[in-house]
Amino acid sequence: MPRDYDVITIGETTIDAFMKIHDTNRKIHLDATSGEVKFRLGDKINVEKYEFCLGGNATNVAVGLTRLGLKTTLCTEIGDDEFSIKIRNNLARENIERLFVKQTKNAPSNFSVILSFKDDRTIFVEDVVREHDFKLDEANAKYIYLTSLGKEWEGTYRMSLKFAIDKNCKIAFNPGHLQLADDLEIVHKVLQKSEILFLNKEEGEMILLNHYKRKIDNSEHYIKNLCEELQKLGPHIVVVTNGKHGSSALDASGKFYTQDLYPGKVVERTGAGDAYGSGFLAAIIHGFNMEAAMKWGAINAASVVGQVGAEAGLLTKSQMDESYKS
């Protein structure tokens, strides 16, 4: 008998190693003009703090949705090294079923090193080749949350689209840079069937490259036009995040909304977009309107950037309810 879920998230799982470099460290420098981080090759640079955390877009969203009271499962592929044990144990602690977690023998886990310096991060990613041969025959869901994958991702996107059509399941779509850069037909087919599209401003401009030349324009008029052009590709709801400028959204009727950043201390920004997406989607499934969903997203993102890693700050349902009232 098929298992029923509110959401199935589909994408990567990683181990993120965070290295915090003190802002006053004299062996590493930030070029304010170019944004380049510079250090001498061969130097030994002291790390203020390091942590190993679970990451990956689909995993972060699965944890976020589960904490916000939704029955969620994760469809992902991991290796069988020592880090895979940490991955499975963390998922178990978050009460996320591992039924659709594929474990490949003699394969490493996805791994990234995140250098945190001067209130920003630089990410070094090891992209492990995976088959991504997922099967969801034993599942039903209200939504699938389809996000970034590494190499050999096209088959998973086709499987996800077929699942959504066959099971009358809505799609929340958050494609990664690899999918947008490849610009394959399947991405546009998923866009046509999506209920909600989550992108940051730069990703939206990548999709609309034939229509928009990327530029530094954060005006409400420009972002509204961006959302409208994206909506023409098929998604009913378009959500665009834009860093310190907050977020914007266009609903199925064409009504435009904006949401400022939620105030709070910024420690490290990894996972802010995933936190926003899980907060927004959870609110929609719980029956809230667009304005409330955007506030849920902003609150969740603010909590995440206040701690190290993509998941430590993700709020529970009771914490979200309390923050939303205040």
Short recap of the structure:
With 326 residues, the protein is of the alpha/beta class. Helix content is 33%, strand content 25%.
Question: Any overview of this molecule?
Answer:
The chain has one domain: Ribokinase (UDP-N-acetylmuramoyl-L-alanine:D-glutamate ligase, 3-Layer(aba) Sandwich). The model has no long low-confidence stretch (mean pLDDT 92). The chain is globular, with a radius of gyration of 19 Å. Strands 7-6-1-10-11-12-13-14-15 form a nine-stranded mixed sheet, sandwiched between helices. It has helices at residues 57-67, 82-93, 154-166, 177-182, 185-193, 201-207, 220-231, 272-285, 290-305, 317-325, and strands at 3-10, 14-20, 28-30, 37-39, 49-55, 72-78, 101-103, 110-117, 120-126, 139-146, 170-173, 196-200, 237-241, 247-250, 256-259. The protein starts with a strand and ends with a helix. 42% of the residues are buried. It is an alpha/beta fold. The protein has ten helices and 15 strands.
**Distance separating the two termini:** 43 Å
Task: Report the CATH topology name.
Answer: UDP-N-acetylmuramoyl-L-alanine:D-glutamate ligase
Radius of gyration: 19 Å
Helix residue percentage: 25-40%
Q: What fraction strand?
A: 25-35%
Overall pLDDT: 92
CATH superfamily placement: Ribokinase
Provide the spatial order of strands within the biggest beta sheet. Answer: 7-6-1-10-11-12-13-14-15
Spans of 5+ residues with little confidence (pLDDT < 50)?
A: none
Give the oligomeric state of the chains in this entry, treating copies of one chain as homo and distinct chains as hetero: single chain
Q: Give the helices and strands as they follow along the chain.
A: EEEEEHEHEEEEHEHHEHHEEEHHH
What's the shape?
Answer: globular
CATH class: Alpha Beta
Which structural class best describes the helix and strand composition? alpha/beta
Q: Total strand count, please?
A: 15
Supply the number of structural domains.
Answer: 1
- Which CATH architecture? 3-Layer(aba) Sandwich
Described by strand count, sense and barrel closure, the largest sheet is:
9 strands, mixed
How many helix segments? 10
